[in-house]
Design brief:
This is Amino acid ABC transporter substrate-binding pro tein. This protein is of the alpha/beta class. The protein has eleven helices and 14 strands. It folds into two domains: about 140 residues, D-Maltodextrin-Binding Protein, domain 2 (3-Layer(aba) Sandwich), CATH 3.40.190.10; about 90 residues, D-Maltodextrin-Binding Protein, domain 2 (3-Layer(aba) Sandwich), CATH 3.40.190.10.
């Protein structure tokens, strides 16, 4: 009986200790997580480091060598609302997720499609935009082509940017065609202009811009995009505070119309074309 009483006393003592210690421990862990979040680091640093890559009209250089475009406006607005400066870190698309994971920058704001394979490596915000794949083709090489089936042949060459959703779309919709991969999207379009590829697949509306710019050589074989994909910011996994902040920022700027206004300017007008190199 005496032994049982001692055991109960010990159990009660342990329970009391845990009842005080666990909340304190949990609070300490939460404080550490918050202090280590990307948002907190950005606020302390005073700079939001943004990983991006050039895609017309998402991000490109103007005649003075300054970055302009839809994504550039978005990233600058995020930084402004945080009370910090935006620092853009151009990165090859194929290596942009590894660069985020190794801390080269804080977030990817670069027209990145939200797809499950990427989501295994990074967390995505809610979509702040939607895009889709379209195609621009060479007038001579692809003469008479008007469907995906026309391009899905062994003697057809499709040029795409490596690591992009365009590359995935080319493999999925045109598995029989030759797929040529390039580090930079501009190289893919140059290959098309040189007559070494039948078509380039890219996020709308970039292919349409190239067709309008070079009507003597290029045309749009499809009347609309053949995929639809949500676009989000990408952040490192395990950082719920940063993800929550970006999600709130997106909802706020969707509701007040700012994102819609910027998209209209960059995707539905050509007012910016004179600024580009």
């Amino acid at each position: 009986m005496k032994k049982r009483s001692c055991f109960l006393s010990l159990a009660v003592s342990i329970a009391l200790i845990l009842s005080f210690a666990l909340p304190a421990y949990s609070g300490k862990i939460q404080q550490e997580l918050v202090s280590e979040s990307t948002v907190e680091q950005v606020l302390k640093r005073g700079v939001l480091r943004v990983g991006m890559s050039t895609f017309v009209p998402w991000a490109m250089k103007d005649k003075n060598g300054e970055l302009i475009g839809f994504e550039i406006d978005v990233a600058k607005k995020v930084a402004e609302d945080m009370g910090v400066k935006a620092e853009f870190i151009p990165t090859k698309w194929a290596g942009i997720i590894p660069a985020l994971l190794t801390g080269k920058f804080d977030v990817i704001i670069g027209g990145m499609g939200i797809i499950p394979k990427r989501n295994l490596k990074v967390n995505f915000t809610i979509p702040y935009d939607y895009s889709g794949m379209s195609m621009v083709a060479h007038r001579e090489l692809a003469k008479g082509f008007a469907s995906l089936e026309d391009f899905n042949k062994p003697d057809v060459t499709i040029a795409v940017r490596i690591g992009s959703t365009a590359a995935s779309a080319a493999k999925e919709f045109m598995p029989n065609a030759k797929i040529r991969m390039f580090d930079d999207e501009a190289q893919a379009y140059q290959e098309l202009m040189n007559g070494k590829a039948h078509a380039v697949i890219g996020s709308a509306p970039t292919p349409a811009f190239h067709a309008l710019k070079n009507p003597e050589k290029l045309f749009l074989p499809l009347s609309k995009t053949f995929t639809r994909e949500p676009i989000g910011f990408a952040v490192r996994k395990g950082d719920s505070d940063t993800l929550n902040f970006f999600n709130s920022w997106i909802r706020f700027n969707q509701d007040n119309g700012w994102l819609k206004k910027q998209k209209h300017y960059w995707f539905e007008t050509n007012e910016w074309e004179a600024m580009v190199q």
